[in-house]
Amino acid sequence: MITKLILDTDITTDIDDCLALALIVASPELQLEGVTCVYGDVDLRARYTAKLLALCGMTSVPITAGMRLPLMNKRPVYWGGHEGRGFLTPEDDALSYSSEHAVDFIVRMVNEQPGQIHLVAIAPLTNVAMAILRDPKLPLAHLTIMGGVMRGANGLHLPYAEHNIICDADAAHVVFSSGIPTTLIPLDLTTQVRVRRAGMERIRAGGTPFQHAVADQLAVYPHFAANDFTYLHDPLAIAMLIDPSLVEFKPVHIDVETNGQHSLGATLMRADDSSPIRVGVSVDVARFEELFVSRVASISGKQM
Questions:
Q1: Where residue 281 sits, what CATH number does that domain have?
Q2: Angle of helix 102-112 relative to helix 126-134, nearest 10 degrees?
């Protein structure tokens, strides 16, 4: 069965968005209906996406730019400072993408194919919240989010709030209150899964320009360069559309802290069997890591 998806991303801030897109490209079960960019310099994010997809021949995928600032604009936009380094050049300033706003694109596509589009949000949730505010009955098939943190007994080393949520806590509140069936892949799981130098070299050995670009971007990502590994946060969310048995889930109600001095963006969870939200509580680390590397190293699912 083919899953139609829209990817909502802040690609370039962390390498994991690039790796998530690579896993989509490598997976025949997934049909990419569009990429929507959010948060900060969305034009740079859209150009980066356009150049990356062009390397694997996927030039017909719509790419749109969306919300630059958080809903209430309470916090400055986080900017890592390494966005596009080693990939985008001054010549790429002319790369084109759709003029349609990302929020308009999401609402239009989902209503044109009600109950068929799976939205995967691997970024601050501003675009998603705006789409829901525009159309409170948005007929998504499902929403998968990489975000949030449980911080159970074994997670006290994790921050109170995860990046995608804290960047726009108000948007997260809108999304988690929407009633849309949602799968949440939290920081508790994504910090367990990694890609290492050996995996990077397997990807590079695939030999295509796309695989070389992905490996090169991974090599220069600051965390990977310093530690010889980085976390597969966003690819784990993509994997849920390929093999949901990789993760064990529990249904929960989620409240988002929108005003806390120390805990802004915290995702407060409690068990709730009637909730449309399920959160990942355990992951098959070895099986997922091998799935990711083997797929991206082979690019078996799409024509290059």
A1: 3.90.245.10
A2: 60
